[in-house]
Protein 1
Amino acid sequence: MSKTAIETVNLVKQYPAVLRNVRNRHPWMAWQVGGLREIFSRKKNFIRALNGVNLKIYRGEVFGLLGPNGAGKTTLIKILCTLVLPDSGEAYVNGYNVIRESSRVLRNLQAVLGDPRGFDWRLSAKQNLEFYATLYGLPRDYAKKRVEELLDLMGLSDRANDMYQRFSTGMARKLQLCRALLLDTPIILFDEPTAGLDPASAVDFRRLLKDKLAKSEGRTIFIATHNMWEAQTICDRVAVINRGEIIACGSPENLKMYISPEKNYVLTIDGYCDALKMKEFMNEASGLCGVKDLRLQADNASVRISIRVDKDFVFSEILDIMVKYGLKIKDVESYEPSLEEVFIALIRGGKQPI
Ligand SMILES: Nc1ncnc2c1ncn2[C@@H]1O[C@H](COP(=O)(O)OP(=O)(O)O)[C@@H](O)[C@H]1O
Ligand SMILES: [Mg+2]
């Protein structure tokens, strides 16, 4: 069995721009002569939501797709769950082609899209889930048990018999996740999974994705998000998409290396330090290969040394010289760029070697 859960090859999706313009106006405008002319004109403008997307997502991986608004994230998810057809290129889910083998694709994945749709607001949460369980063909007894288990897992047990219309946005989102978990599909796609959840529920939710669904159950999780912190904490790998193109792909750590091939440390020296010894230390340490910058900052409270080094510099070389001159370290801080800084640099700076 192949190790790849999702693969896209040169995926292109374009939407007619004129229709977008007409749709954005007041509905009756479309029926005016100008609107009709736009709809039927041969000279249509297109907007490329996806422009040659190549991605490989491995089984059991938590993969994040990061991008600003309008980058193409939702379009890619909709293609993978067979809601939208691509214009060219190929996409495979567990080896099944999304166009030619769509029913098999749907047996291998579940998608949790942006707004919770498809629930009947007059039925209770439990009845809604039981309805979907029947639709998915689950045996009655198993379905009842599974629905209760899932409501409990998402902390909705005590509201199970409330009508759906009484549910808040966050609760509706949790119910959506319960629906996605009714079938044990090996792949789950999420579009902005924690949007609308309170901070505590968002933390539980991320833990559920990473620890239970991915680690314990070995499922592949694909998340489209613009929440950098979320991507950094739960994703094994992330791809950055901008204007329909993947501009970088790798582990969060590797992406940080792209924009900052250096590391920064600040060492706080413990207790009294001899000025002469410190000077000798500074001379020797600044001569080390890989040290880009070395500065001493001293005030009444503390003596601190800030060091900028190459990313593969072996830090123990500095420690050896400190020991040699009898300097003791009280505290070490290292500074790394956040994924947010990486993201902004990538969006502004263009494509990186993938
Ligand atoms: N149904 C549609 N009709 C026309 N244009 C669309 C449609 N869906 C998305 N688009 C356009 O495609 C681009 C990508 O949209 P989308 O995939 O929703 O981005 P994201 O989810 O990253 O915010 C945007 O410019 C958006 O306006
Ligand atoms: Mg979107």
Note: Residues 262-335 form a domain with the Alpha-Beta Plaits fold (CATH 3.30.70.1340).
Protein 2
Amino acid sequence: MKTSFADAPSGASSHAATSPGLFSPLVLPNGTVIPNRIAKAAMAESLAGPGQAPDARLARMEANFAQGGVGLIITGNVMIDPLALGSPGDVVLQRGMDLAPFRAWAKAARSHGAQVWMQINHPGRQTMAVLGQPGWAPSEVAVDLGKHSKLIAKPKALNETQIRQIIQRFADTAREAEAAGFTGVEIHAAHGYLISQFLSPLTNLRKDKWGGSMANRVRFLLEVVSAVRGAVRREFCVGVKINSADFQRGGFDSDDALEVVKMLNSSGVDLVELSGGSYEAPAMQGQTRDGRTLAREAYFLEFARDISKVARMPIMTTGGIRRREVAEGVLSQGVSLVGIATSLAMDPGLPLTWREAKPRDGVLPTIKFKDKMLASVAYMAVIQRQLQRLGDGQRPLANASAIFSIIRDQLRNKLLARRYRSWSRLQS
Ligand SMILES: Cc1cc2nc3c(=O)[nH]c(=O)nc-3n(C[C@H](O)[C@H](O)[C@H](O)COP(=O)(O)O)c2cc1C
């Protein structure tokens, strides 16, 4: 039975027969009110400045989402360790950094009353080779991207001390995010990054207490949640993004996800976001590698509906949502929040348009590459370019060229990686 959160203003639970409207507020277990049911899901912006600090463009970009009327803004992933980045444009937040640019970012995002959470992450083995660091992972299982695999660094297995240090880093970063004026953090435990690597039997081959049974594989996530919760005030929100499945044969599956949520029920988590996939199987873009077919829109809705039946915290699902009817359909299934990424990058004003009952659907970019991996990279490059345009005070492009976006992205990454490598030499 759901006991710990309510859908304001009526106080009805999210399983009420009549589903809440898209523009009704949601009260989280810690009492925080999210003003409506639309969340801007995390999108890595690749907008770190020197020293991997937030560039001023991040605040400008985020103001677009604030004005656009979402109830919750989740930032692109911010890395907890300067020596463990996914890509060279990633922002880092660790103890002792100047918080001024983070404050400006949080302030712009909060300017229209939305809740603003920083997504905090460790990439584990999903780190680009060009960064010059190994990928620190539960086990030495390399990312398999076929002929593109060499783009990703070789992994090394973490030892007990390193695992403890990473848990502490998650807590430190959350505390800094709170000090900088964010209203919460979302712990990234999805998409094949470090926490998700611990959860998956394909990437976690450890024989110690961090691997093997589900109870052992989930230990790292539970310890991170507990350390983060213990580092911040109760009013500061703590969310977790997990995969509903890896969508790879033998991987973390939907029964595992159900078990994880049950284990999170008593951990003080305010929201669980459900997504799916990894670099190897980008289900978050609708592609699977285990033969399963996802819904054409709201990819993970079926899983989210089942999980919300056992969850004591509200559930959000993200992936493939771009029409108002679909967003309302998500809420009607007992899911409390609708996460949207791509459609908001293309059109940050979509929520306001829907609120004014004007007919408008979100759009997804059309990518026509046959190579699935290249298609996935192109998709990310096109959307990141839109985010960067918002940061430059420009409007998103309706028909951005995929080829141009990839070339531009590669050149940018080359330059950013060079800057990062010289800076990172001073960090160890
Ligand atoms: C450019 C880009 C960057 C992304 N970066 C992140 C990220 O930093 N963290 C994360 O959890 N998901 C990230 N995602 C995935 C989205 O949050 C979301 O799960 C996915 O795009 C599916 O939702 P959509 O169909 O509404 O785009 C990213 C997606 C895109 C397109």
Note: The CA atoms of residues 15 and 97 lie 43 Å apart.
Protein 3
Amino acid sequence: MKKRIELSLDVLQKCVKCGLCKSVCPTYPYIEEEGGYARGRLALAEMVLKGEMPLNWEVSSQWDACAMCRRCEWICPNNVEYKEILVSARELQGKSIVKSLGLKALEFIQSEVGRKVIKFAGKLVQSLPFKEIKTPFPTGAVKFMPKPTAKAFDLRGKVFKAEEEKGKLLFFTGCMIDAFYGKTGESVIKLMNKAGYTVIVPKDIKCCGAPHYYSGDKKSFEKLKEHNLREMESYSFDAVVVACPTCGGALQEDYKISKPVYDFAEIVFKSQIKFKGSGRILTFHVPCHSYSAMKVKDGVFYGVMEKIEGDEVRRAQKDKSCCGFAGLFSITNPRLSDQIQKEKIEDLKETKANIILTTCPGCVLNLKDGVKKHKTGQEVMHLADYLAESL
Ligand code: SF4
Ligand code: SF4
């Protein structure tokens, strides 16, 4: 085979096999094999690279079963570049049909025709009396999917001016907010304006490409990155703001843009904005990529929630554990994803909170699906929405 993992053994051998990553890996408890967590997945890459093992089904299935939450990287004492290694391994492995279709769907959503289709569908389904639609996938996954929003892509190409402008933020909305959670986009803008920042929403940003990159499709990622960088360069701004940590992580690590990239909560945290709660109990799910990719400290999220007067915040024991979504992972690994989700929902249920808050639209989707399936009766909201409602 001519194609090689673009990695030297030096990079792989940075792993000192301490096994610390086993303790934080969401997939290991349900796989219970060495290949079910980072150390084993890296060892397989090393064996393939050395030619000691063929890239067979056994290897592929262990790489496929990784959620790419990157909690292993976050805990690793030796700074092993797990993401880069797995991305190269997956590039060598190639994509399944389901993954290819999923990635193409993301590209379609952000095409001219796709945007019109989503908007039309959003208008069509708005009158349905439920917020989510139970959707079966050919892989056996069944998810309560959000309805497309009638306001899909409405924020595009607009500037939202702050009264006393401290600076300009470019809002990288992300596919989920664009297509399904338009209200969250409006909430972020409201909060940023209140904090003193004018918000620019570029006209033609496409998918950030993180799902492509994590799937090993570097070529599609590069195309999306080039397009988005060109589009971003046509605006004048001081920093980028995101409400999806996967987009934020891609912009920080893989786009390497010169301007700072902030999670919206970081800006709210530093602001003087105060919020009025309604006497409810809140808990928070910390999205994996917020700390493993964007390196936002949990103190920022909990600090923001402390600004809400009148609500009680209860920290869940496993607030930083993965929710099991991980984008296409939840569709391609339905059983594993459901097991991880169940553990998460049980932990959140323990808090007896009325509302589960989080800062990632993907986590919102999966937690909403989880509370419905496990009938906990809890509400799930993006933190930006709860804050905007509590202004
Ligand atoms: S924590 Fe890091 S060094 Fe230790 S086994 Fe895992 S990847 Fe290797
Ligand atoms: S990225 Fe997440 S699922 Fe994959 S090996 Fe690391 S901790 Fe486990």
Note: Residues 97-146 form one domain.
